[in-house]
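Issue 218. Parser rejects a valid record. Input:
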Amino acid sequence: MYPDVSLHINGEWTKGAEGRNEPILNPATGEKIGTLAHATKPDLDKALAAADSGFKVWKKTPADTRYKTLRKAADIIRSRADDIAKIMTLEQGKPVVEAKGETLLAGDIMDWFAEEARRTYGRVIPARGENIYQLVVKEPVGPVAAFTPWNFPINQAVRKVSAAIAAGCSIILKGPEETPGSCAALVQAYLDAGVPAGVLQLVYGNPAEISSYLIPHPVIRKITFTGSTPVGKQLASLAGLHMKRITMELGGHAPAIVFDDANVDVAVKVLSANKHRNAGQVCVAPTRFLVHEKVYGDFVQKYTDASKKLKVGDGLDKDSRMGPLANTRRVDAMEAFVADAVQKGAKLETGGKRIGNKGNFFEPTVLTNINNDMRIMNEEPFGPLSPIVPFSSFDSVVAEANRLPYGLAAYAYTNSAKTASAIGAAFESGMVSINHHGLALPEVPFGGVKDSGYGSEGGSEAIEAYLNTKFISQLGI
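Output the parser choked on:
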């Protein structure tokens, strides 16, 4: 049911030149389910040579052909959604319904970038003299090195690969070692759709070794990374030394504000669902719940009740609504966050412990009596922990919402058009959603500000990072 996972270099699946590998574990059981091949320097050299030659072919391929290839890939991955979802659940843990939704969304993202391939418009600039033509043209930036995380093994990779292919670039994708199977299935969909050998490579291995080799290499002209802020800063620094264009989608610590005039039932339902999606291992998950003191007690009770009712179990169980954490490191992190908060005075409304001694299951956890000295209010939890804090005024809650250096996503609930407008303007965040959860659609921008990175991986802005702008001034003879 779960395949061993190989590298893909220059049109071939391969085990790697030096035979290195690592086990792939099921987070629901802790058992080995497969083996992952590792790339080393000889493999990376082959991937770089292939990407270089692949780019020379693909950049000359008509945009309409790139469009048709991506549309075909979208149809292929949709047709395989059930099988890919099971692979993803086995390696990552999320409920299979979430895994299938992620796979189907990949098809929509491919469709979006297919259309963008045909719309990389330039322009004509009126000249100051006769018989002069001033043209702005868009050209693919070159071979891309992409680094993607384990929490959404298809969703993050599909944005980078589709944008590169749409723009006419080749790409080396460094996939996630802990969740490689679904990422490999994504790559296979592109290949089966007709993406030529050399245009798309897939490698796994030691992340630090791969990034330190690919980023400075002269073949690579663009870097795109999704992951933690500390690692993102290191990679951005390395890319800057070599003047490489970069897109960074980094960590977050999203405030979720519930004003006194909000519909508390709606806020609880939407926030709980999005907090516990993928067991809270989501960069845009709500993480600091800031609730007006007038509705604080009502919100805490209803949100706690919703957390207690959440069915936690193996993602392959159709009744499970939250699966295990992806690895034992996340369980250790959750226990450390809770211990720190309780030691500093927090009250556990529910949860706070791992579930059983098999797999990486952790209880949905609600904490009150929170203060800003606690780690959970300053570090991205990346798990099913919900600290709830009361506030009394608009100015005070804005100050708290913007206190941290993160700026990826922010949420608010209110029935006042005036308040909605004011809080939308006041958030220091790349993305804001009010009275619902409306982020990460293919057609809308996706990216952060401050320490949450820069650049967009969605909307019409996304493809720009894969294109160079060239100005041509021509005097007619």
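Fixed in the parser; the record now loads. Residues 218 and 428 are 36 Å apart (CA to CA).
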